[in-house]
Amino acid sequence: MRTRLPDNLRCAVTLGVDFDGPSHEVGRGIAPLGIHSWGRYSARRGIPRLIEMLQRQGVPCTFFVPGYDAQCHPETVRAIDAAGFEVAAHGYLHEAWDVEADEESRLLRQTDEILRDLLGKPVRGWRSPSGRKTANTMQVLKSLGYLYDSSDKDYDLPYRLRFGPADDDCIVELPNNTYSLDDFPFYKFSYTPPSEVLAQWQSEFDAIYASDRFVVLVVHPRSGWGSGTPARTAVFEQAIAYMKAHEGVRFFSSAEFAGWCLQHPQHLEEWRVA
Amino acid sequence: MNACTVFLSVNFDAEAYDLKSTSEDRLYGRFSYGRYGVRAGLPRLLAMLERRSIQATVFAAASDVRRHPDAIRALRDAGHEIAARGADLTSLPLLKEREHESLLEARDVLAAIAGEAPQGFRAPTGELSPRTLHLLAQLGFTYDSSFQDDDHPYVFSLEGNARIAEIPTVQALDDSLPFSARHTHARVVKIWREEFDALYREGCLVPLTVHLRGDLGFTRAARIAALEELLAYMASRPGVRFMTGAALAAQVLASGGPAEPDPIVAHRETLAVTPYRGDLAVKPI
Prior knowledge:
The complex is a heterodimer of chains A (274) and B (285). Chain A contains ten helices and ten strands.
């Protein structure tokens, strides 16, 4: 059985902002100074600008925050929550490398504790920094009560990802694509004008709206290759407005949509890797 | 009416840049794009800036300044600000204990040739060591322009009551990266115009970084024509003015606004126990 959204859900959109503050550089042993200061832009300018824009558009969004960035900028993370947006986890020091299972468990729990203490509520989801994960990752996320992961690149629709034999060895997967439904490939690698990035996202949306009807669009609030700066926040806003203008498009936070998936198991494919 | 300031900065980066990948006896052929910047590019840039009545800020490494004293004096005589960019273009964190000596040389060579100590500094490769801001303040620099973390100039407050202004730039308005990706100048101007329009709408600083070079720079005849058209467009927008780095620094230092703490302090402990995993920042080729 393949996942199929019911006809009364014409198209579901989840928006994500991956915080990527100074953790991105500090985690690699690089001082966040000079050209390496892009992550400082996230808390100073990018997050406030994106919050203001998302409120103007009146759409939910999930902010995926590395634990270290939450420690550096607790007031920014509280502001995200106070503005009504979901805060989810995104590694501790934005680990963009393979981490041994024990160390990984420790880091996932550490970040969960930081975010939970800061917000006084449970964290519901996780996105891998750089897209690396294992069955162990999902085991730990489940033990922490997480509903979903949004890191796999293997499908166009949400599904139940089975990572072990026990009944509960299953997590909602909201797959993303960091080559097209993301900002950094265009701003980091191809130096694409913002207006062409908008055209690309519109084209992606048109095709998805006509077929699978599920969109995961992700941006970063940092300077450099992110979308926190004025021109790039503006095209992200135009992409949102474009999607809103289509009939039946519903925006969900990732946690809300994971909840929808859990309430509608009959619509969801289950997939087991290996 | 929007108030919007454009900061036009020029990275001189002549032979000093080529010498990162070759030796003095091989500054010919593919390693002569830096010389192009001085021989062909600079006169064109000077004429264009004069036509547009724009004062630029030129960041030059001491080794380039020594090699081209007349070019530096011509820029100064035309009213442009000359600022420092290291002894050569070696990344500062690599210099270790030689960093102070290198910054001193950057300052003194410029002072001797331009007749005035530079107020501003931009790090070669954009990288700073944890000590750089302190050393710059000690050496009398009033501002740095190497960070990419804000929409407006601001001030760092350092240990020992030292203060230094920061004039942040943005990667999207640095010509060397799209030119290193072999984009056409029309495409680069398209990006810059979109970036400018949005910065102008929000009243942010517009920090433009152009290079003199014939490969990664904006001074070829066709490119500089496209740049001139864009600068004319910016100047035509109500409320736009051009300012040098020194003028921006003086303004923000005098404004008495809140100062930022030394940016390394919050991260020192974590960095001390974190192994270096490689620099994934994208730099010009």
